[in-house]
UniProtKB/TrEMBL annotation:
The keyword Metal-binding does not apply. This is Potassium-transporting ATPase KdpC subunit. It comes from the Bacteria. Part of the high-affinity ATP-driven potassium transport (or Kdp) system, which catalyzes the hydrolysis of ATP coupled with the electrogenic transport of potassium into the cytoplasm. This subunit acts as a catalytic chaperone that increases the ATP-binding affinity of the ATP-hydrolyzing subunit KdpB by the formation of a transient KdpB/KdpC/ATP ternary complex. GO terms for cellular component: plasma membrane. It comes from Filimonas zeae. Signal peptide: none annotated. The keyword tRNA processing does not apply. It is a single-pass membrane protein.
Length: 184
């Protein structure tokens, strides 16, 4: 019996050192060389921090670009999805309410033109990015409210579209809205 206990205790101690000490130190060390040193990229306007680039936030005014809905109310401490599937009646009702709200706030947009990401929450509930199509479908609303030519807004979207090596094109909503406020 003792011949099994001693190797088990040794293996346990080795795994504790690897998983609870070495790995966290390695990840922390790598983060020190990342932009923001692993603390997140804060965005500031006139010296005041207005948010983090990697955490979505709610924009409730119609004269701003809207991000994806959040299943957790954009609470970064409670990052989560809704865990409801596409056949769940409550989920379908929530999506329909989001579609109806989007259509009310974006006159001239049809149901078919709404990108799915604008009415469905991301897995984390904190997605800071939208697709160029999701930004484009909001241009007319913002153009009308801010009295800015739609072509200028389209150019703003183009300038803020990130084109990663892998994955789809995306736009950070907070960065886009900061740039929107700087248009005179």
């Amino acid at each position: 019996m003792l011949k099994y206990i001693i190797p088990s205790v040794k293996l346990t101690l080795v795994m504790i050192v690897l998983c609870a000490v070495a790995y966290p130190l390695l990840v922390s060390g790598i983060a020190r060389f990342a932009p923001g040193q692993g603390k997140g990229e804060t965005l500031s306007v006139n010296g005041k921090v207005v948010g983090y680039a990697n955490v979505g936030q709610s924009f409730t005014r119609d004269d701003y670009f809207q991000g994806r809905p959040s299943a957790v109310g954009y609470n970064a401490a409670g990052s989560a999805g809704s865990n409801k599937g596409p056949s769940n009646a409550d989920y379908l009702k929530t999506v329909q309410e989001r579609i109806d709200t989007f259509l009310v706030h974006n006159p001239g947009v049809t149901r078919e033109q709404i990108p799915a990401e604008m009415v469905t929450a991301s897995g984390s509930g904190l997605d800071p990015d939208i697709s160029p199509a999701s930004a484009a479908v909001q241009v007319q609303r913002i153009s009308n409210l801010r009295k800015i030519d739609a072509q200028i807004l389209q150019q703003l979207i183009t300038e803020h579209t990130e084109k990663p090596l892998l994955g789809p094109q995306k736009i950070n909503v907070l960065k886009l809205n900061i740039a929107l406020d700087q248009i005179k």
